[in-house]
Amino acid sequence: MSWLAVLTVLVTLVLLMSGRASPLFTFIAVPLTAATIAGFSLEQTLGFVSHGMAIVAPIVALFIFAILFFSTMNEQGLFDPMVNWVVRIAGSSPSLVMIATVVVAAICHLDGAGATTYVITITAFLPIYRRVGINTLHLPMLTGMSAGIMNMLPWTAATLRAASVIKMDPVDLWRPLVIPQAIGLFAAIFIAWWIGQHEKLRPAENTLINDGKGAGDDDPSGLRSPEVASSRNGGSWRYSFNLVLTLAVILTLLFFPRIPSVVVFMVGLAASLLVNYRTAAAQMVMVKRHSAEALLLSTVLLCAGVFLGVLTKSGMLDHLSNQLITILPASAARYLHLGLGVLATPIGMGIGSDSYYFGILPVVVKVMAPFGIGPETVARAMMIGENVGFAVSPMIASAYLAAGLAEVDFGRHIRHAFLRTWLVALLVLLASVLCGAVQV
Predict the structure, then answer these.
(1) How crowded is residue 357: how many other Cβ atoms within 10 Å of its Cβ?
(2) What CA–CA distance (Å, rounded) separates 2 from 318?
(3) pLDDT (0 to 100) of residue 137
């Protein structure tokens, strides 16, 4: 079973990164073929698929309503003043734009929700990147890198998983990682600055809005100003309403985690459609106009659910986790936690979080105990790379959301972001060793 799991993950990664097959084909054909080879019955395989679909369904719903909500706001010109202001500040250099991306993503990820961070940050900065002429592949890379560094906060899912395995208070587990996290954020900011200094700008897209045209002025459907109310004039009451509504949505996402994110966006979308579009026909035309982009990634996410469900529910990942431990030579056992810490980013691309924390971590804790290495050290070492690199992992559903919101191919996103993300993870691990958070 372990060799089949390895082969399944490798084939999936190769197909995604090579661009030879679409994600839809890859995420459906590869895991279903693997399940058939493994000898699972049709009923069992359907159960795996249902389990995986249940994992990604909330992300899919969130994506659909978030895309429609922010598309409405963008169509109404809400982001135009910010885009114009950032463009004026940045001038011909994109460094400030990319540094701002890192900072905004870190702030948004204080709630520990990757999907929320991507929706807020990438949606807001995408028109700015296009206007300045920055390669949009940098946007999900920097956003994911920043969110990954912040994903070690004590209330995030990864830290809670690790703390539950070693039976430790998550705040105590996280506290020694504060300095390494800060160093990681400074490293991400430096990378943003360095890329900005060496970035060859693309032809800028015209996102400056100065003519006061409404959202429906270029609408091929024929719904023009009498039907579609426009708030592109910054002084209009609709612009003020849209601004307050968007801030309310964002603040609710950040400070009221008990309210499902999809519900927040559903309410926001309903209110925005009612105020900005005067008739039911105009409202539905707006939804149809932006439904294509929402449908495309939703399809990919649902197909990714097939991949995740088969690998996790079939037990393939559990076998793979155990195999990773058994193939290590005995002489390397003393530094096993550091070795896994170094390789955590690529390992996390092939092993789901549950298998990583609930499968590998307990075994490594037992292996390291005779050497005097505490379980908290093992947990921190393994947490760092897996978290920093979670935005380039095919095993994390929200990673597809980041690429989709930035309108870039997921395979290209992995190729573009992997090495830089891994480098930051290694720097954070080194800082953790030097400050004593991780024992050697």
Answers:
(1) 25
(2) 8
(3) 93
- Alpha carbons 402 and 144: distance in angstroms, whole number: 7
Identity of residue 17: M
What pTM did the predictor assign? 0.67
How far does CA 422 lie from the centroid of its chain? 16
pLDDT in tens, 341-396: 999 999 888 776 766 776 678 778 877 887 888 899 999 999 999 999 888 988 78
How many CA atoms lie within 13 Å of 199's alpha carbon, on the beta-carbon side?
25
Q: What is the pLDDT of residue 359?
A: 63
Q: Residue 314: which residues within 8 A CB-CB, separation 6 or more?
A: 35, 38, 40, 44, 48
